[in-house]
Amino acid sequence: MTLSSADFSAIWLTLKLASLTTAILLVIGTPIALWLSRTRSWLRGPIGAIVALPLVLPPTVIGFYLLMTLGPNGVIGQFTQALGLGTLTFSFAGLVIGSVIYSMPFVVQPLQNAFSAIGPRPLEVAATLRANPWDTFFNVILPLAKPGFITAAILGFAHTVGEFGVVLMIGGNIPDRTRVVSVQIYDHVEAMEYAQAHWLAGAMLVFSFLVLLALYSSRKTEAGWS
Amino acid sequence: MTSTIHARLKLSYPDFSLDVDLHLPGRGVTALYGHSGSGKTTCLRCIAGLEKAEQGFIQINDEVWQDSDKKLFVAPHKRALGYVFQEASLFPHLSVLANLEFGLRRIPREQRRVDMAHATELLGISHLLDRHPQHLSGGERQRVGIARALLTSPKLLLMDEPLAALDSQRKSEILPYLERLHDELEIPVLYVSHSQDEVARLADHIVLLSYGKALASGPIGETLARLDLPLALGDDAGVVIEGQVTDYDAHYQLLTLQLPHSQLNVRVAHSPMAVGKLLRVKVQARDVSLSLQGGELSSILNRLPVTMTSEISADNAAHVLVRLDACGTPLLARITRYSRDHLQLHPGQQLWAQIKAVAVLA
């Protein structure tokens, strides 16, 4: 056996985190992307910039602010304590919140591009064929933006798997709760367990390559993501 | 004329404003005609609710779709209209059949007045149902788009230059279907176009738009013959006449058409048609010449006794445009200024109009 049970536990936790984060992001990212692709409001610039911030900020900065707001003295921390939930820092729930913010642009931007590429015409056509806005969303926008959703889901999932700084800042390194693969590799290296680190790092490398290979190979036939 | 479509629309953009008050017949085809930028498409979009006129009142028969005074604005998907866009805009993810069913399925069964078999037969697309839009020609796509709009059993069909994106061959492929629509369905149509030929062929009523204002609105025959409109100045100025077939001469293959409300006839080369049918013809102003006597032998088939009513200068100094009255049917003649002086033309004068060519619009 080359991977320890701690390694498998980290892999399982990582997959759980990435799946949940992707699911949440698809649900909240879709209305944000739809709004960004349609609105003429002045808020479009600021909101678009906020969504894109994780692309440029060091993960430690995001992690630091999350630690402050989710912690015992932070706004959200006080709120969750008042609800009797304790604080979300150093918990799986805290990791999910951090990952949602950190991977947001990787989901919102492909969706926004897909929605923009559809343009207003199919929506107008649907309206003149008596489809109400919800009907139009499910029967016209969703199927036409399908390639964008696939891209968004893959990128959101893969990017969450690859996260390290934010996790370390707000999750710490608690086995089975916040110790994801990237942190586990860091631990192995710190402990000079290079053979263990090799196996996990190699698995991450192969996984990431396969994900991107799938994405770029299917790109040719996709519309709406550039 | 009892007008059953009323659209009062006011709207302004930085570089364009629309201000019209249209009372249109609730049956037949009404053309919104004008150059690009005249506001015809904006009118149509406002009536559909795809654009919102700041001040507007839209009533189709007894249904009010917008009344800005009462803050009433019916959402587009709640208006019983069909809309045909310039590009067919079929849903690319659906087959032809699924495109057609998209609107049909959203209409309660008891409100359906056009069924699938009728619509596909009317537009000649029955053999295309399994195909995907990518595999259709431009003309086929547009026919599917029209059928899809019809299947919502609309109370008003809006068509935004449905032929503009097609080459002339595809146009002539679709025009007969549009004529059948006109003849077989009781749905009033608003038809946006900048092509006088299409308008002459299809429309019963015309609204002339220019820079967001309606310059004229009236029956096609009268309106095209009005000298006070820019329509009369173009090279293809002329009148449209809807005549009734009274006779067919099989030997010479000539159809006799009686002009509306008169005993005057014109004859035109055509295939046989049943007596009593209506046929639309266009007489171009440049094909009409005038003479003082009607008697002499000539190769010209059609000569009509007319009364001169008025004249204006044409678009160049050598010509004038003369309006004539043939027992109630207006005619235009484009003649040289020299001939006018030579014949000493004046309003009220009795003349003979010699018509060199009568173009059948069908």
Structure description:
The complex is a heterodimer of chains A (about 230) and B (about 350). Chain A has about 230 residues and is mostly helical. Chain A is built from eleven helices and no strands. Chain A has one domain: MetI-like fold. Helix content of chain A is about 75%, strand content about 0%. The C terminus of chain A is likely disordered. Chain B has two domains: about 220 residues, P-loop containing nucleotide triphosphate hydrolases (Rossmann fold, 3-Layer(aba) Sandwich); about 120 residues, RNA polymerase II/Efflux pump adaptor protein, barrel-sandwich hybrid domain (OB fold (Dihydrolipoamide Acetyltransferase, E2P)). Helix content of chain B is about 20%, strand content about 35%. In chain B, β4 and β5 form a beta hairpin. At the A-B interface, α6 and α7 of A face β7 of B.
Query: Strand portion of chain B, in percent?
Result: 35-45%
Q: Enter the CATH topology name of the largest domain in chain B.
A: Rossmann fold
Largest beta-sheet details of chain A: none
List the domain count of chain A as a whole number.
1
As a whole number of angstroms, the C-alpha radius of gyration of chain B is: 22 Å
Instruction: Name the average pLDDT of chain A.
Output: 90
Write the CATH homologous superfamily of chain A: MetI-like
CATH architecture of the largest domain in chain B: 3-Layer(aba) Sandwich
Helix-strand sequence of chain B: EEEHEEEEHHHEHEHEEHEEEEEEEEHEE
Give the ordered list of helices and strands of chain A. Answer: HHHHHHHHHHH
Quaternary structure type: heterodimer
Q: Main β-sheet of chain B, in a few words?
A: 6 strands, mixed
List the chains of the largest interface with their residue counts.
A-B, 17 and 23 residues
The CATH level-2 architecture of chain A is identified as Orthogonal Bundle
Unreliable segments of chain B (pLDDT under 50, ≥5 consecutive)? none
Computed CA radius of gyration of chain A, to the nearest angstrom: 20 Å
The CATH superfamily title of the largest domain in chain B? P-loop containing nucleotide triphosphate hydrolases
